[in-house]
Amino acid sequence: MSETAEKFYELNITITRHGPKDGLGGPLSAGGEQSVRDHYLNKSNSQPHITPRKVISSPVHRALQTANIYQQVLKEHQGDIKIDVQVEEDERLSEKDLVEYINKLEPEKQGNWFQYWYHSELGKRAVHDFSEWLLEKIDNQQQSGGALHIDAFSHGPVMAGFV
User: DSSP secondary-structure letter at 103?
Assistant: First the structure.
């Protein structure tokens, strides 16, 4: 019986909620854009990014805005290390139709919307899709070997529902 040597692999995934937004379903606020930029500028000065990386975002506009600001900071502020990563979109990182769901709730339930969303089919699907995405990334890296860092941009309810 022959043994197959396991491939070395290293996978780091950083999952970030989008920056501060305008309103329930709005894009990043002007202050939100600036706080995201400031956060990543401060972080980029203290941590060089050498490992090959991917940037993956929910297709929801505020998450994409956050990912694009991060990607721009990576490109502009890494000194001699040239990083050219494109932002990939993946629906499995999205909160689905959360705003529409909240707006359809009875007014007395809207203040505590998370508990209703989490137990709804929509919430269950969002958590399932996120879990599926995460397991796929782990499996793919294990199969291909090597090192990879993934910066993922999602939404608070998806991350809280997963945890």
Answer: H
Residue 18 and residue 70 in contact, taking contact as beta carbons nearer than 8 Å: no
Dist CA 74 CA 52 (whole Å): 12
> Between vectors from CA 10 to CA 6 and to CA 50, what angle results, nearest 5°?
140
Rounded Cα distance, 22 and 16, in Å: 18
State how far the Cα of 30 lies from the Cα of 85, in Å rounded to an integer.
25
What stretch of H or E contains 110? helix 107-110
Sign of CA dihedral 43, 47, 50, 54: negative
Among all chains, which residue has been given the structure tokens 């990939």?
Answer: 88
Q: CA–CA separation, 41 vs 112, rounded Å?
A: 35
Q: First vs last Cα of the chain: how many Å apart?
A: 41
- The backbone region for 96, taken as left when phi is positive above 0, alpha when psi lies in -120 to 50, beta otherwise, is left
What are 11-69's pLDDT values in tens digits? 999 999 999 998 888 899 999 999 999 998 887 665 555 678 899 999 999 999 999 99
Q: pTM for this one?
A: 0.87
